[in-house]
Recover the amino acids of this structure.
C-alpha cells in the first residue's frame, strides 16, 4: 500500500464512519416518529401476497411505466442505484489498492458486462430525468408543473449525486484500463475501454477516483440523514415497506373502493358504545393517524403525479394531494420532539405530559404542537379547511402514486373529526345530512314517491315480496328514484332488463340511501345508520340464498361501490354489478340486439367510482360500441371517440366526496373543465354511467350554451335507442337541463 492509498483509505473510512453514524441516528428517529401513530393490525395479513405485490411494483415498476419515458428512465436509475451499490462497495477495495476489486464475483466477465450496461443506461436515464425536471420547473409552468411545491434543490441534489457516482465509476474503470489492471474484455465493457484510452496510465488515479466516488456517496448519505423529511431520497428505502403494507395488496387500485372504517386504538369504532372522551373519532392530531399514515407521509417522493391528476388542483382549488401530504409530514417531524418527550393531548384536550417532561423540549416543537391540524391562516392550521373540502375523493391521487400513499383515507379521517366532533363543514352540506337523517335521501323527497319512476311503463315492475323469485335485485338509488335525469336511466335499465327477459325486483319504499354521501363527507354515524338499515332489508330480501345468488344491479357507481365494497363491514355480503356490466353481458349473449346505429359520434366519460375505484372500464365501452354499430358489424360514422383523459386517468365530474351538495366557489368549475374536454372530441353524445356525472356534465353543457348541439345521456339510454328505436329520446321527453 503506497502513501496515496494510505491517505485515501483513512479518508474513506472517516467519512464513511460519520455518514453511517448519522444514517443510523436518522433511521432511529424516523422509526420513532412512525411508531407514534395509532395501531393498524390489518396491515400484517397475507405476507406472501404482500411480498409478491411489493416485488412486482418495485422491480416491475408497474405504476411508473404508465408514463413510458419517465417510467423507463426511472427504472434504469433504480436498478442502477441498487446494483451499482456493489460498485460503491468495490470502491472501498480500490482505495486500498489500484488493482483491488470485489472478492469472488469481481473477476467474472458477466459481472463486468451487467454493471457496464446498467451504468450506461443509468446515465441515460438520469439525464432524461434531469431534463424533465428542468423542463418542468415550477417558475416556468406554474400549476401545470407537477413539481410545483416540491423542494427543488433536493431533487437536483439527488440527481446530480446519481450522475456523479455513475461517471466516477467509469473513471475508475478507465484508470484501470489505462494502467492495464482491468480484467474485462472490450466487448463486455466498451465504454470503460473508451474512457481508459483517453486517460493517462496513472496508478494513483484509481484510488483517488474511488475516494471521490465514496466521498460523493457518503456526502449524499450525510445530507439525507440531516434531512429526514427528504422524501425524494428516502423513498429509495421507504417505498418497499410502504408498498408492502398497503391496504389491499392483492387488489388493483389498493386504497380505492371501500373506505377504511372509523378506527379507535386499532379497532373499528362501535357507535353504540363509543365515547368521544375515550374513543378516537376521526383524526384531530397528526399522531392520531395510523403508523401506516405516518409512513405514507415519510415516503412521499414529491414527484407530483397525484397533483398533476387532481381535478381540484387542475381547476385552481387549494388542494394538492402532494402538498397536503408534505404539510402533514413536515408537521409530524416538527412536532415529534414534543411527542417523543411524552407530550400530546388526550381526547378531552388535556395535556398528557408533565412540566418536567417538556422542560427540555425545543421551543419550535412546542409551538408546532399548538397548531391545529385543520385551520385557516389566521388560526395557523396545518391544513386549510378549503383544502380539506375541495377533495372529490375521485381517487386520481391514489391511482397515480408510485409508492401507494392512501390520500383519500387520510382526507376522510380528518373530515370525520371535523363533522362529528367540531360540526365544522360547508353549510350547504348540512341540508343534505339532515335530509339523509330525516327522509332517507339527500334531496329530502318523500319516501312514498320512490316508485314514481315506474309510472307509464308498459310492463309491471315487480317488488320484493310480491314475487316468489328473482335473479337480480334492482337497486334504484336515490338519484334513480327522485332526480329527473336519473329517472330516465332507471326506466331505460328496467326496460332493457324486461326486454332481455331478466327477472328482477325492486325494494321500492323499502330502499333508503346507501349512505355514500354521508360517509365521504365524514359523517360515519349517519352512514352506519343508513347502511345497517339497508343491510337488514337486503338480508331479509335474500334470506336463504348463498352469496353468489344474492345479486344486485345498481345504476349509480356510488351505490355500486358502497353496497359491494363497504356493506361487508356491516354484515352485508352481496354480489353487486353495475348496470353497464349486466347490459354488456346481455348484448354479448344475444339477449339484447342493437339494430339502430347511433350517429353523430359518442364519447364516454368514466365515472370515478366505476372506473378508478372499481376498475370497470370495458363493459360500458362494449355497450356503446354495439349501439354505435347498431348490429351492422362495424362502427357507425363518428364512432366512439375517447377523451384525452380516460380510463384510469379520467377527469372527475366534480360531484364525488359529497361535493354534489357543496357549492364550488374557488377556481374553475370541475364539470366545465370536463365538458370542454368532451366537446373538443366533436362528439354529439356524451355517454355517462353515473347519475352524478349526468347532472354535472349536463349542467356544464348548458352552461356553455351547447345544449342543442351536445347531449349528455346514460349508456343505458344509448343502448335502448339502438335496441328499440321507437323509444322516444331523452331530449324528446324533456329538456336535458331540467
Amino acid at each position: 500500500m503506497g502513501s496515496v492509498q494510505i491517505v485515501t483509505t483513512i479518508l474513506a473510512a472517516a467519512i464513511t464512519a460519520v455518514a453511517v453514524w448519522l444514517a443510523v441516528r436518522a433511521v432511529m428517529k424516523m422509526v420513532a416518529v412512525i411508531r407514534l401513530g395509532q395501531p393498524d393490525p390489518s396491515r400484517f395479513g397475507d405476507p406472501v401476497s404482500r411480498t409478491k405485490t411489493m416485488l412486482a411494483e418495485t422491480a416491475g415498476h408497474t405504476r411508473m411505466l404508465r408514463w413510458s419515458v419517465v417510467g423507463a428512465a426511472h427504472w434504469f436509475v433504480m436498478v442502477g442505484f441498487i446494483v451499482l451499490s456493489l460498485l460503491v462497495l468495490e470502491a472501498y477495495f480500490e482505495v486500498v489498492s489500484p488493482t483491488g476489486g470485489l472478492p469472488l464475483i469481481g473477476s467474472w466477465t458477466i459481472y463486468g458486462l451487467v454493471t457496464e450496461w446498467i451504468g450506461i443506461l443509468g446515465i441515460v436515464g438520469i439525464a432524461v430525468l434531469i431534463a424533465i425536471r428542468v423542463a418542468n420547473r415550477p417558475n416556468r409552468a406554474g400549476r401545470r408543473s407537477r413539481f410545483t411545491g416540491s423542494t427543488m434543490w433536493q431533487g437536483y441534489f439527488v440527481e446530480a449525486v446519481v450522475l456523479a457516482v455513475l461517471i466516477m465509476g467509469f473513471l475508475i474503470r478507465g484508470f484501470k484500463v489505462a494502467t492495464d489492471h482491468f480484467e474485462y474484455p472490450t466487448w463486455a465493457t466498451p465504454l470503460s475501454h473508451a474512457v481508459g484510452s483517453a486517460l493517462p496510465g496513472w496508478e494513483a488515479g484509481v484510488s483517488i477516483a474511488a475516494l471521490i466516488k465514496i466521498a460523493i456517496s457518503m456526502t449524499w448519505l450525510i445530507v439525507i440523514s440531516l434531512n429526514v423529511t427528504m422524501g425524494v431520497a428516502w423513498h429509495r428505502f421507504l417505498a418497499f415497506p410502504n408498498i408492502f403494507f398497503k391496504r389491499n395488496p392483492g387488489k388493483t387500485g389498493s386504497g380505492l373502493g371501500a373506505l377504511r372504517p372509523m378506527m379507535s386504538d386499532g379497532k373499528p369504532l362501535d357507535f353504540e358504545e363509543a365515547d368521544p372522551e375515550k374513543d378516537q373519532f376521526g383524526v384531530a392530531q397528526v399522531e392520531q393517524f395510523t403508523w401506516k399514515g405516518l409512513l405514507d407521509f415519510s415516503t412521499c417522493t414529491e414527484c407530483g403525479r397525484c397533483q398533476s391528476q387532481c381535478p381540484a388542483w387542475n381547476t385552481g382549488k387549494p388542494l394538492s394531494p402532494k402538498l397536503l401530504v408534505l404539510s402533514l409530514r413536515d408537521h409530524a417531524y416538527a412536532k415529534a420532539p414534543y411527542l417523543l418527550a411524552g407530550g400530546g393531548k388526550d381526547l378531552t384536550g388535556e395535556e398528557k405530559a408533565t412540566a418536567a417532561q417538556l422542560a427540555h423540549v425545543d421551543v419550535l416543537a412546542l409551538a408546532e404542537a399548538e397548531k391545529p391540524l385543520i385551520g385557516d391562516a389566521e388560526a395557523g392550521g396545518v391544513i386549510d379547511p378549503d383544502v380539506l373540502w375541495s377533495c372529490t375523493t375521485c381517487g386520481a391521487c391514489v391511482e397515480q402514486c408510485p409508492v401507494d400513499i392512501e390520500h383519500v383515507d387520510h382526507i376522510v379521517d380528518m373530515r370525520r373529526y371535523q363533522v362529528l366532533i367540531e360540526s365544522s363543514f360547508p353549510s350547504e352540506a348540512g341540508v343534505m345530512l339532515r335530509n339523509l337523517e330525516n327522509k332517507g335521501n339527500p334531496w329530502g323527497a318523500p319516501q312514498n314517491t320512490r316508485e314514481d319512476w315506474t309510472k307509464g311503463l308498459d310492463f309491471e315492475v315487480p317488488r320484493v315480496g310480491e314475487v316468489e323469485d328473482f335473479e337480480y335485485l334492482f337497486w334504484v338509488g336515490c338519484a334513480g328514484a327522485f332526480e329527473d335525469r336519473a329517472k330516465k336511466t332507471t326506466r331505460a335499465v328496467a326496460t332493457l332488463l324486461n326486454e332481455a327477459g331478466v327477472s328482477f325486483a325492486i325494494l321500492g319504499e323499502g330502499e333508503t340511501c346507501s349512505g355514500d354521501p354521508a360517509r365521504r363527507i365524514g359523517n360515519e354515524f349517519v352512514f352506519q345508520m343508513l347502511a345497517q338499515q339497508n343491510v337488514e332489508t337486503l338480508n331479509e330480501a335474500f334470506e336463504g340464498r348463498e352469496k353468489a345468488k344474492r345479486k344486485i344491479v345498481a345504476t349509480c357507481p356510488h351505490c355500486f361501490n358502497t353496497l359491494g365494497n363497504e356493506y361487508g363491514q356491516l354484515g352485508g355480503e352481496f354480489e353487486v354489478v353495475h348496470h353497464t356490466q349486466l347490459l354488456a353481458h346481455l348484448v354479448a349473449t344475444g339477449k339484447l340486439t342493437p339494430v339502430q346505429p347511433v350517429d353523430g359520434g359518442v364519447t364516454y366519460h368514466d365515472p370515478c367510482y366505476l372506473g378508478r375505484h372499481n376498475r370497470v372500464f370495458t363493459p360500458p365501452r362494449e355497450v356503446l360500441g354495439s349501439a354505435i354499430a347498431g348490429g351492422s358489424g362495424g362502427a357507425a360514422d363518428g364512432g366512439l371517440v375517447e377523451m384525452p383523459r380516460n380510463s384510469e386517468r379520467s377527469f372527475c365530474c366534480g360531484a364525488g366526496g359529497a361535493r354534489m351538495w357543496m357549492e364550488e366557489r374557488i377556481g374553475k368549475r370541475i364539470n366545465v373543465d370536463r365538458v370542454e374536454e368532451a366537446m373538443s372530441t366533436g362528439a354529439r353524445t356524451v355517454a355517462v354511467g353515473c347519475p352524478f356525472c349526468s347532472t354535472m356534465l349536463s349542467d356544464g353543457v348548458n352552461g356553455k350554451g351547447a345544449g342543442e348541439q351536445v347531449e349528455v345521456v346514460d349508456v343505458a339510454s344509448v343502448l335502448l335507442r339502438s335496441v328499440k328505436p321507437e323509444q322516444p329520446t331523452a331530449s324528446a321527453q324533456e329538456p336535458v337541463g331540467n
In short: The first helix runs from residue 3 to 34. The chain has a mean pLDDT of 91.
